[in-house]
Hints:
The structure holds 2 protein chains of 2 kinds. Chain A is mostly helical. Chain A contains 8 helices and 2 strands, in the order βααβαααααα. In chain A, helix 5 crosses helix 8 and helix 6 (124-135) packs across helix 8. In chain B, 57% of the residues lie in helices and 3% in strands. Chain B has a two-stranded antiparallel sheet. Chain B has 9 helices and 2 strands, in the order αααααααααββ. The N and C termini of chain B lie far apart (107 Å). The A-B interface holds A 6, 8, 11-12, 15, 19-20, 23-24, 27-28, 33, 36-37, 40-41, 44-45, 48-51, 95-98, 111-112, 115-116, 119, 130, 133-135, 139-140, 155-156, 158-159, 162-163, 165-166, 169 and B 5-6, 9-10, 13-15, 40-41, 44-45, 47-62, 65-66, 68-70, 73-74, 79-80, 85-86.
Amino acid sequence: xxxxxxxxDDFRRIYDENYHLLIQVIMHIVYNIEIAEDLxxxxxxxxxxxxxxxxxxxxxxxxxxxxAKNLALNHVRRNKREIEMVEKxxxxxxxxxxxxxxxxxxxxxxxxxxxxxxxxxLPENLxxxxxxxxxxxxxxxxxxxxxGISETNVKVRVYRARKKLExxxxxxxxxxY
Amino acid sequence: MCIDSQMLSAYLDGELPEPYRTQVEEHLEHCxxxxxxxxxxxxxxxxxxxxAFSEELLLRNKDRIYxxxxxxxxxxxxxxxxxxxxxxxxxPSLITAAAAVVFIFIGGFMFFGTSAxxxxxxxxxxxxxxxxxxxxxxSDTAGLDNYTLEEILQYLDSKGYNVDISIKGLQPxxxxxxxxxx
Lengths: 177, 182
């Protein structure tokens, strides 16, 4: 079904279907919920303002993910100075508002932080692929479309990212215990 | 022979096409090492997934932002007209374009110089007056003291000039009054 970005119903539908996905993708790049919300809004504004027609909802989705990803990456590049603040936000336990038990929360927060840091330390081409794979529920074909690479390339990068993460996270465990 | 790790990774994601898929499954049946490998990969996947941000956090402003956008773009009944569509020009390209215009403008004069004919093409009314044959240098050794202002004006008028007279710096009677006739 064709999607027109300035049609109110289409816009609503695309917004509902993709907000979660976009903010998740952005959040794993900027690690700050306020910034992630701003950038997600910006992505949808561009979607409207560009006044585009997409052959299907999936095409609109891929376009949006691409825009969201680029907005977030540009933001991080442009605000190198803010990186310390981002660092702080990531380590800020208040982010894990969902946790009830404090000590349990601390352990879980540590684990999450370790994984996030391991992902962040991946080279960008591997990082984007594994994040889209794990957090956006896209299959190889969709990731290939979003990133403009081949499916085989996606397969290879997913594997390499996993390998690197495994190494990074297991060394970390050894350091801890 | 055991399964290639990359194949196993694709298998885990459900992205392995058919002949290989069954082969991998058959191999897993009797190979503990590969089963272990797959389990490790699954465990890692779970760890990564668990590091996702919670829905609660991510979706806290979803509705607020939607109503903001809806208000901005749809409720006022506005449509994006051709003119309102954002024209996106990057700063460097804008500067390049501006520099090019200036260069062409100045370069035109630099390389081809100016001549009366060209000036006439560009500014016809100016060329007529500014041609060197129209400018006369006048000097009068006796000065204009011998003529009254009225005579000077009559003379100029007879030659067909438009004369504007302005008087500057009015002073008391006993000092000189300077008059500029143009």
